[in-house]
Every structure is written in C-alpha cells, then in structure tokens.
C-alpha cells in the first residue's frame, strides 16, 4: 500500500495530543505520513512555534512505516486547514475537539467551517477518546443520496481493521419514502458485499431524535467509531444539530465526517 498523508492540526493542548495519538494508532495499520500542522497569525510567532513543534515531534514514537513531519504556516485554522490539506494532497485530517464549549460549540460554528472547507474526511476525537482498534462502526444514512457518500470511506476503514459496519436507517411510514430508504439500504448492502465488508442493517423507529437513537445503538453494540456525511440540505429538519451532537457525543467516540458536497472517492 502506498503511503498516505494524514494532517493533524496541532495546538499543543491535551486534545491536540490525543489527535496525534489517534493518528499514530491509525499509522500502526497503514503506511502513512503524519503531518503536524500549526497555524500562527504572524511569521515571528511561526519561527518560535516551528522549533517547538519540531521538538515535540522528536518525542513521538511512530510505528514502523509511519513518518512524522511538521508544517508551520501563517494562517487561520477556520479558513486555511482545508486549503492546506488540498495543497498537500492529504487523505485525512485528524482533529481534536474540546467538546460543546470548544470550537465555538460547533452549531453554525467556525469548527463546522473547517470541516466544510475541506475535500478530505475528518476524524474528530475528544480528549477522553479511547485509543483502541476499530471493530464496530456505525454508519447512519437518511433519505438523501448525499448521506451515502460516507459509505466508501467507512468501508475502507472496515477493511483496514477487519471491522463490522452497522448501517442504520429510520423506518418510514410513508410508502414512497420507505421505498426510497430501502433502495438506499440495498445500494449500501450490495456495495459492502462486493467489497467483502461485514455489514449489518438495522432500522430504527422514526419517532425521536435520530442522533440520540444512533448513540443509544452505539452504546448497546459497543461501537468504536461513528461515520457520517455532513450535508446541510438533508431532509432531516434537525440536521443542523445532528452533526454537532454526534461529534460532541458524551461517550467520547471518535467520529469520521465528510462534507458531502466536496467529497470525492476513496481516502484510505
């Protein structure tokens, strides 16, 4: 497998260090370059931080096949991460969140701007996120075709870790909508069967908050990772809170999320 590039926006905080640790855990499974990215608001600060970042990188113990590099740029985390990731041809951005109080509480926030500005997927971790192999992945889909854009990425992760994917959807009382969601499920199921990915299909009751039902399912099934596509034109009226609620989940599970408008094919 050719070497990938994972960018970790790094701010020297504990949650930033957790993002690095999670990247190293992924690096134990795939050959990758992990690039620690620090953004400063001036070149003089950048020179100081460049030295600090290089010293921090020397303390890391990457697995065989994983290379640690550093990059310090003048810029803004909320507008430049996606641009830099594109320039560097990154397959993945691994970023820490301080929770609902961090990153501007996420709803309509600057943090969402970071994610929606990038073409590659993000893995979002919290300070308390556990470092462990990924064995169970939840992939919630809805009535939109955009929600399916996460399935390839989730399938790649499942193949790397030998994980099972739990495809979740809500039951629909309307016959037309029910046919549509069944068609979506059929597409995903056939895709995973062709790729030899172990997948389980589960339908959740329509009533209640979708994100809360997803998290209850995750708890009941010892899920290790949640993967979904962010798309603001979802038919789900609560989607503006759906994404932040999953990203800041109380179980501290890591989350893979992509901006469906900018997403392309495979990243792993």
Q: How does this model look, in words?
A:
It is built from eight helices and ten strands. The chain is elongated and about 60 Å long. It starts with a strand and ends in a 9-residue tail after the last strand. It is of the alpha/beta class and 268 residues long. 37% of the residues lie in helices and 24% in strands. The protein has helices at residues 14-27, 43-58, 77-87, 110-116, 151-161, 175-194, 210-220, 239-247; strands at residues 4-9, 32-40, 66-74, 92-97, 122-126, 136-140, 164-170, 199-204, 225-230, 255-259. The protein has a ten-stranded mixed β-sheet with strand order 3-2-1-4-5-10-9-6-7-8, sandwiched between helices.
Outline of the structure:
This protein is an alpha/beta fold and 268 residues long. It has eight helices and ten strands. Strand 9, helix 8 and strand 10 form a beta-alpha-beta unit.
Distance separating the two termini: 10 Å
The portion of residues forming beta strands comes to 15-25%
Spans of at least 5 consecutive residues with low confidence: 102-109, 234-239, 264-268
> How much helical structure, as a percent, in the residues?
25-40%
DSSP, total strands:
10
The topology string of helices and strands comes to EHEHEHEHEEHEHEHEHE
Outline the biggest β-sheet: 10 strands, mixed
Shape from CA axes?
Answer: elongated
Structural class: alpha/beta
Please outline the helices and strands.
Layout: E1 4-9, H1 14-27, E2 32-40, H2 43-58, E3 66-74, H3 77-87, E4 92-97, H4 110-116, E5 122-126, E6 136-140, H5 151-161, E7 164-170, H6 175-194, E8 199-204, H7 210-220, E9 225-230, H8 239-247, E10 255-259
Helix pairs in contact: 3-4, 7-8
